[in-house]
Specification:
The complex is a heterodimer. By secondary structure, chain A is an alpha+beta fold. Chain A has helices spanning 13-29, 50-67, and strands at residues 4-8, 32-36, 73-76. Chain B starts with a strand and ends with a strand. The chains are: A alpha+beta, B alpha/beta.
Chain lengths: 79, 147
């Protein structure tokens, strides 16, 4: 039936629950999974709080580095 | 994983594809299936102001929709019998099909719904059908919108 299941996550509680269910589902039907996390792009706004903005941007980049990678991670679950 | 899958149908060709997929999935995970058909309410034609509504016509309409439902549900039954999947069916008269589908899933204690991504609508091959969208929005259990 299904051979490959995409499991997107944003790291939230409901998304974790869905990921768990998705993995159980993939295992039950013998499919492989690809996890996906969309990196957020921060649009800097140039105003009086410019400095703060730059700082936020840096934080976001760090956060993205921590939570995601450019290539999806693939796992094959044994049936 | 899933123990009991609800497969609603409106008798359209896309629904037939979803039925096939749903039954196959049920077979793979060892679930049973329930086929569901929502009986439509009286067509507008029947209560428009230039139409005389009588009991006979209502009865005719109801018989017609029930017969259609039996026919559509037979598709689910045949698919289930072919793959040796345990099968039941349900038909209820509701104001809107999505209500019937969500209620049927609750009543039958289903743990998943496999539904076609769209049904009879015309534009619908591009977007999710309205019934499927509403089922997704109102269902408490996982929904697979089959494309």
């Amino acid at each position: 039936m299904f051979k490959h299941v995409l499991i997107p996550t944003d790291g939230s509680g409901p998304s974790k629950k869905a990921a768990k269910a998705g993995i159980a589902f993939a295992k039950a039907i013998g499919a492989r999974i690809t996890t996906y996390h969309a990196l957020e792009e921060h649009q800097p706004i140039y105003n009086a709080r410019f400095r703060k903005d730059l700082e936020m941007n840096k934080q976001l980049v760090d956060c993205n580095k921590e939570t995601g990678s450019d290539s999806p991670r693939e796992t094959v679950l044994p049936k | 994983m899933f123990k009991h899958i609800l497969i609603p149908t409106d008798g359209s060709p896309v629904a037939a594809k979803a039925i096939k997929a749903g039954v196959k999935l049920a077979k793979e995970v060892g679930a049973k299936v329930t086929g569901y058909y929502a009986l439509p309410p009286l067509e507008h034609l029947y209560y428009g102001d230039s139409y005389i509504l009588d009991r006979r016509r209502i009865a005719e309409f109801e018989r017609g929709t029930r017969e259609a439902g039996q026919k559509h549900l037979a598709t689910v039954k045949n698919a289930a019998v072919k793959l040796g999947v345990t099968y039941t069916s349900l038909m209820t008269k509701v104001a809107s099909p999505y209500i019937g589908i969500v209620e049927a899933a609750k009543k039958q204690k289903c743990d998943a719904i496999v539904i076609a991504s769209h049904g009879r609508g015309s534009l619908s091959s591009l977007v999710m059908g309205s019934v499927t969208q509403k089922v997704l929005a109102h269902s408490k259990i996982p929904v697979i919108g089959y494309r």
